[in-house]
Every structure is written in C-alpha cells, then in structure tokens.
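hey can u check if this looks right to u? its 174 residues, i copy pasted from the old doc so theres a chance i mangled smth
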Amino acid sequence: MKPVPTLLHLVIAAFLAGCANEHDGLEQAFHPADDFGPSLARMGYDDPQLPELAPGPPPGAESDATSDAAAGDGDAIAAAMPVPARLAAAPNPFNPVTELRFALPKGGARVILAVHGVDGREVARLLDAHLPEGEHRRVWRGQDGRGRKVPSGVYFVLLHAGEEVVVRKVVVVK
C-alpha cells in the first residue's frame, strides 16, 4: 500500500514541481510513452543554451544497459504504461468563475475534486464520484462549501483520482 501524502507534502510538491499556471511560461507536458518525471525540455522551457536532452549515455560513451524488449515493441510498452491524470484551470487568476478541466486514464477512477486554502483546510468539495476515463469539466465559482464567496488569495485544487493526486494552484482576484 502506498503512503498517503499529506496536504503539506502536496503543496510543497506543487511549488517545487512548478505548479505553474498558463501564464508562468512553464507548462508541463505529459509524455505517457517516455515520461518518468518532468524535465526542463519537457516543461516547455525554450533556451538555446539548454543542451538537447536525450535518453541514454552521451554520444561516444559505452553503455552496459541491456533490454529484453525486441525492436518494434515500443507500441506495446507505451500502451502498458500508466497515463497520469491531468488537471488544468482556466482562467487563472480568475474572478468570479474558473473552469477545472481534468482527464482520467483508462478504466476511470473514483474522483474527489476539492479546493483547499493555504492553511490546508478544505474550502469546497466540488466532486466525489466514480467517473469513466476521458475528459471532464467542473466549474468553481469562488465559493466555499456553504455558498459564501471566498476572499482573494491563493487556493489549491486537489484532484484525487484513484491512487493519484494532482495539485493545481489557482488565484482568486477581486
């Protein structure tokens, strides 16, 4: 059984992993066939000084790595790899409404979509249901669970999809 991350872990991970919004200049792209974590090149960081990142040893280096995969098995390997859940918010920053778009991998999952304040408390639970794979959308109107408008500030949208947790920072401006 995997350990369950605390909200503090998720918030720290969100900042360190570049929980960037669409206006930060860094946009993480998911590459299901070969993504074992974010890299500057995969996050859209475009700098001519950044060396081209390629898998494997540098040119001219010897490698002791071996593989049991036959040539042409790439499609089978890519199909077997898990696709992570994704989450986006637009517009962000927002007032008064933002649309939360998320995608679930094959098989769907039990989904909890909740908004948390910077203090870790749950401000609003937007969804708690089992959903099929594919694209889904929910709207957050900048209100807490009792329908009261939340103050301006930073909030964290947490998408719990099965065993995965995805965090997106959103900003309410008044």
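The chain has one domain: 7-42+80-172.
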